[in-house]
Automatic annotation (TrEMBL), chains A, B:
Pfam families: Acyl-CoA_dh_1, Acyl-CoA_dh_M, Acyl-CoA_dh_N. Residues 41-160 form the Acyl-CoA dehydrogenase/oxidase N-terminal domain. GO terms for molecular function: flavin adenine dinucleotide binding; oxidoreductase activity, acting on the CH-CH group of donors. This is Acyl-CoA dehydrogenase domain-containing protein. Belongs to the acyl-CoA dehydrogenase family. It comes from Hydrogenophaga intermedia. Its cofactor is FAD. SUPFAM superfamilies: Acyl-CoA dehydrogenase C-terminal domain-like, Acyl-CoA dehydrogenase NM domain-like.
């Protein structure tokens, strides 16, 4: 009954092959034309082995040991972490979704999503280090000078160097307009960076020789607010091999992901180079936000999967009152709800990854543009819902262990602690809800949402109650838009419920689609898939209705 | 913006004086006839000072230090814990609700409830030690021999000695029928106790010289299952001053309440004495279950209050996007929901404490019997709902701090970790739900529930939507009973939703009653009370309806 990971490869394959029909989509993308399911399978099996055999055994020890900051500012990660990272690099994993022009393998983000889900499930703390690579890669690729690209991209793609994102300052959490870090242009074209940043994940560590910091800062002539932010590349080790003037002044004592060094960083006249245009730093960073937010959503999915499969194994083996506790109705219902939500989250998150792939690679421009819209709409929902569930699912699952669940050695309590941060960083879930309501729904008067819901409902059989629920939700959206038109303040007050209402609607599609494609599975698995749909209709659909009802309800007097 | 405690004395007084009309009830109890509100106020003010000045400063350090088990089995509590306990004893706090015949102060459990709420809010880990006293006191008082009473009650009432409850064994969590610890009768009338127990809170520590263990065990001729359990009093130090053969073999590494020593205990032929009849140990322990479960519910209330008031202070002081974050609609709504739920939980938990008082002390036998029924019905609801909310409330409140909420020094992350255990121990919340459904509702065909709901609705003004919600709920109860009559399995499958449906119904009474009595408050406070009722109607009543709907819904196919 120990805490272990069995990668959900069968369900992943079912989602790729039948629920999302990925091979058909890949054929329409020149970059993926040679990819088939067997290759994808082989990649995922290898990833599963790495996650379960190399990372998972380091999860509990990493939590207990935590990171240590030495007196000289160096940070030591827990035992085994550097070796695991070397194995990760040797396996070529960082390069998986990167452009072959920079040494990448050019595989879809969809497969990268499955890889990340497994890494997060097994060791969220460890995965914080490489998780930041891709965002830095995308930002430099899109906005860096040729010189910066040549100097940094190959070594980020290979994973030889890691990256850190330096945004937050003590006075500026979600409010980036208050950032103060200064950048002074030098005669040689470089910048001199001075300021203090907090909450810098992987700002300092011992996994790689160099760490490439992307630092939000202000040039001397910068306008106030977010429109005066520039982005600088500030490496720990300079091209001439000397140590740059950036220092870790402390690491945070946190609720969870204790193996991830959350650094307070001091840039003490450090040398850096501008990425992109002056004062356009936020725009450069926004580029990577869709994938970064998807990655955080995958952390939630990983925790939910890990909690669900371990709770099920425990419940099958632990006997109380003469039978396995999994046979007690309250436990059985909880496990079913966890199962169906995990699976539906996976479908939803992978659909968002597919949208990102198609928006870049599909041969048909109309599809590229449609999928770009879908990705923009899905991203805040995946980020917020999957991390919400990624905390609340494990928090509920903990009860399956009874008192043992509260004890570290059983594993689940760490999952609950680790999972909570994902609701906060990369834009809090409240910010995701506002992004959805304001920029994704109000901005186009719901057009993209209608387009998506119409496309999804068409994938379900007629007379499916889940299709009915989608239709029902579709009628709520115009009501919400009207409500906001009458009372602008309603948007902010209803955004959370709106996001959860829409998330439940999308989950309903995912569940309905899995049931509809269940015939492709062996009999027993197919029956199970249909039973889960029934459980979802009984438990989650009324919950979704409640969110819609609240999203539409009259606001309390102000 | 540091983590502090301002005891909610004004709201406590409002609840005692106006919402529950405690003075009128006290006048009808001989034991409390001399008690007035001024005395009660003085007691609560003194308790608030102790909690906020002595205990609260030890909360974070207690978590970081935790307990240490020395090689010889002794357990050292965190710095300051023994001194705080000595101050607690010197203040006479353990004796507050105890019988004057044994050195107690004879004050109502209602005041004891307010005291415990404050202790739990400030330092749950520390309060684990004295929290167990009252249960041991009640059990020995009701079932102990005269000799045991004389030897142990005065020193438990004064707090000179502490107590521990030794129930759980590795193979027997919620299933006490599987307990194996043996008790062999000796020629001198004592018992020789041998066995291993786990999860024994305060089984060993350095706060008192002696620790009185109440151990569930089996006599040689015991029937199998729970009907063969006896209860033994096993002191750490024997009457002759020698050390008894009970040893702490280890302490658990837990998610929270790290300052509370959760011990694995070994009774190695330890000397003990029977409490009550042979094989009737569980009945003897059940006596204290109502108050013990109420105490755990108060832990949830304490956490909820602490999270709510600190979140509000932080939200008022922290400025982002040009204004205090408390003015942002999502935060404002969250704070209102936390506020109204905290207040309603307090009313409900205190009502349960009042029921316990009246069931023992009221001069009218009919009232005593009615209140005994009410206490039995309210107890599982208070335990399960207040601890559910006591975890989920702080877990949501953590978001108000953004990334800071994840960092230990801001306080809230510890509250979330500490609070989770209360959903599990003293009977998991799932067990509370089954207790409610089976023994409190089905057993008398809902008679007590109808009696309670009728009494409560009569306290609300006509045409109050909250009264309508109680009436609505009242119609659901017969439907649920019918459903269970048709399909026995439905009881276990719907118990959780039933408990939460009924809890929301009782909260609706509490909120309506507060609004109805708001005229007794200053104008601003009265207006606030009414606004909170509106927030509750908008957010919580639909949630309550959802639980009732699920409790009645057709069960998924089995």
């Amino acid at each position: 009954m120990s805490w272990t990971y069995e990668a959900p490869l069968e369900h992943m394959r079912f989602v790729l092959e039948h629920v999302l029909d990925a091979p058909t989509h890949w054929k329409a993308c020149e970059a993926f034309a040679d990819l088939d399911l067997d290759t994808a399978d082989a990649v995922l099996e290898e990833a599963a082995r790495f996650a379960s055999e190399v990372l998972q055994p380091l999860n509990s020890t990493g939590d207990l040991e935590g990171c240590v900051r030495e007196a000289d500012g160096r940070v030591r990660t827990p035992t085994g972490f550097p070796a695991a990272y070397q194995a990760f690099v040797a396996g070529g994993w960082p390069a998986l979704p990167c452009d072959p022009a920079w040494g990448g393998q050019g595989l879809p983000l969809l497969l990268d999503a499955a890889l990340r889900e497994m890494l997060d499930a097994c060791n969220h703390g460890w995965n914080m280090y490489p998780d930041l690579l891709h965002g830095a890669y995308e930002t430099i690729k899109a906005h860096g000078s040729d010189d910066l690209k040549a100097r940094y991209l190959p070594r980020l793609v290979s994973g030889e160097w890691l990256a850190a994102m330096a945004l937050t300052e003590p006075q500026a959490g979600s409010d980036l307009g208050q950032l103060r870090t200064r950048a002074e242009p030098q005669a040689d074209g470089s910048l001199r960076i001075s300021g203090n940043k907090i909450f810098i994940s992987g700002g300092e560590h011992d996994l790689t020789d160099n760490i490439v910091h992307l630092v939000l800062c202000r040039l001397p002539d910068a306008p106030k607010g977010t429109k005066g932010l520039s982005l600088a590349l500030v490496p720990k080790v300079l091209p001439d091999g000397s140590r740059n003037a950036l220092f870790c002044d402390g690491i945070e004592k946190k609720m969870g992901i204790k193996a991830s060094a959350t650094c307070a960083m001091r840039y003490d006249g450090a040398t850096g180079w501008l990425i992109g245009e002056p004062h356009r730093g936020l725009a450069a960073m926004f580029l990577m936000m869709n994938s970064a937010r998807l990655h955080v959503g995958l952390q939630g999915l990983g925790h939910q999967e890990m909690a669900t499969q371990n709770a099920r194994r425990y419940a099958e083996e632990r006997v109380q009152m003469g039978r396995a506790i999994g046979e007690h109705p309250a436990v059985r219902q909880l496990l079913d709800r966890l199962d169906v939500t995990t699976q539906a989250q996976r479908v939803l998150a992978y659909r968002a990854a597919l949208a990102l792939d198609l928006s870049e690679q599909h041969s048909d421009r109309a599809v590229r543009e449609r999928e770009k819209r879908f990705a923009a709409l899905l991203t805040p929902i995946v980020k917020a819902f999957c991390t919400h569930q990624g905390f609340h699912g494990p928090a509920a699952a903990l009860g399956v262990w009874g008192g043992n669940g509260y004890v570290h050695e059983y594993g689940i309590e760490q999952t609950v602690r680790d999972a909570r941060i994902a609701m906060i960083y990369e834009g809090t879930n409240e910010i995701q809800a506002i992004d959805l309501a304001q920029r994704k729904l109000l901005a186009d008067a719901g057009a993209t949402a209608f387009e998506l819901l119409d496309a999804l409902r068409a994938e379900l059989p007629e007379q499916d109650p889940l299709r009915d629920f989608i239709d029902e939700s579709r009628t709520h959206l115009p009501s919400w838009l009207n409500r906001v038109a009458q009372d602008g303040a309603h948007l902010l007050e209803s955004a959370d419920d709106l996001l959860h209402g829409l998330a439940h609607t999308l989950l309903a599609w995912a569940v309905g689609r899995m049931a509809a494609m269940a015939n492709a599975l062996p009999d027993e698995a197919a029956a199970r898939q249909r039973a889960l749909a029934t459980a979802f209709i009984r438990h989650a659909v009324p919950q979704g209705r409640l969110h819609w009802q609240r999203a539409l309800a009259a606001t309390a007097p102000r």
